[in-house]
Design a protein that fits this description.
This protein has 318 residues and is mostly helical. Strands 1-2 form a two-stranded antiparallel sheet. Helix 5 runs antiparallel to helix 6, helix 6 runs parallel beside helix 8 and helix 11 runs antiparallel to helix 12.
Length: 318
């Protein structure tokens, strides 16, 4: 993928210093927009999305700091247009997107403190620009995860409460932690945050498994909105439930969860190498007939897995 992106950005000449723009030289030696063009575009002719890909591409090859340099270059350009008052809504939105990309890169570098500070700034500026003070619960949830990575459980709990107040459908309630997930507009967000907090704050893997099991039931129901189905991965949920059971000492239940998903929904788990690897590992821990089960698993998955699935994840004997 990185090679394909590198080839694509090379075609557009994004690595060069000379960038084609909708500008022309004027007689006085200055630079101006082409005459007679209605609603002219400003800046680089190359599409913004492609330029963001150009900025992100080095990190796919492990060159995270090079990506940061490119993202900051685009962010500087965005800030220039914002100061000039050009298409304010457009460039402010692009600036926020670039800041989120910087957060992502900082997490890759392990600099969670900087990522947290930037993300808090994004949340503050985003809520103030909306006027209503509403916060993006997905961005706030990302901040919860970063604070938990830092071990700042108190700060994470504060932001979880902010998210739940934002999503709560019972406006008379201020103590949201005692409410069931059915009282919230985004049950998936609430349940995932509660599961992560249970693990990080008290090491309560059983409680985390309860939250994730409820999330699995919700994700398989017809009540979930269509736009949310694309962001909820059933294999990931089941994988995490099994990890919770494993860390709580219940290896048999961890195995049954993974095995049932593979056998009942091979079209979903066929491309999940991490799930298949974990299942094969659990076979190593629990079953003497593991080779037969591995080959059965291979036969089930073979009909649905893509060509890019690494067969080594099944841990079959050569």
């Amino acid at each position: 993928m990185a090679e394909c992106l590198a080839a694509e950005v090379e075609v557009f000449g994004l690595g060069g210093k000379e960038k084609v723009c909708l500008y022309q030289e004027l007689e006085n030696g200055g630079v101006g927009l082409f005459k007679g063009v209605e609603n002219p575009r400003y800046g680089n002719l190359v599409g913004w999305d492609i330029r963001v890909i150009w900025a992100r591409e080095p990190s796919l090859r492990g060159l995270v700091k090079d990506s940061l340099d490119r993202v900051f270059e685009l962010l500087t350009e965005s800030n220039v247009y914002i100061r000039q008052g050009v298409d304010l809504d457009l460039w402010k939105a692009r600036s926020q997107t670039l800041k989120l990309l910087i957060v992502d890169l900082m997490v890759e570098l392990g600099d969670f403190r900087t990522a947290s500070n930037i993300l808090k700034g994004v949340i503050a500026s985003s809520s103030s620009s909306h006027g209503s003070g509403k916060k993006d619960v997905d961005v706030c949830s990302a901040l919860v995860r970063i604070e938990l990575q830092l071990g700042n459980v108190v700060e994470a709990a504060k932001w979880i409460n902010v998210i739940e107040l934002e999503l709560c459908q019972n406006p008379s309630t201020t103590l949201t932690s005692q409410l069931p997930s059915t009282d919230f507009a985004r049950r998936d967000v609430v349940l995932i945050n509660r599961a992560l907090y249970a693990i990080s704050s008290a090491g309560d893997w059983n409680q985390a498994a309860i939250h994730l099991t409820e999330l699995l039931e919700y994700s398989q129901s017809n009540s979930i909105p269509t736009q949310q189905k694309s962001i909820i991965s059933i294999p990931v949920i089941v994988n995490n439930i099994s990890v919770c059971y494993l860390y709580s000492g219940n290896v048999g239940q961890a195995l049954s969860h993974l095995e049932s998903l593979v056998l009942e929904m091979p079209q979903l788990c066929g491309g999940s190498a991490s799930l298949l690897f974990n299942l094969a590992t659990l076979y190593d821990l629990t079953d003497n007939s593991l080779e037969r089960k591995r080959r059965l698993l291979g036969g089930v998955v073979a009909a649905h897995a893509g060509d890019d699935l690494d067969g080594a994840c099944l841990k079959l004997a050569q």
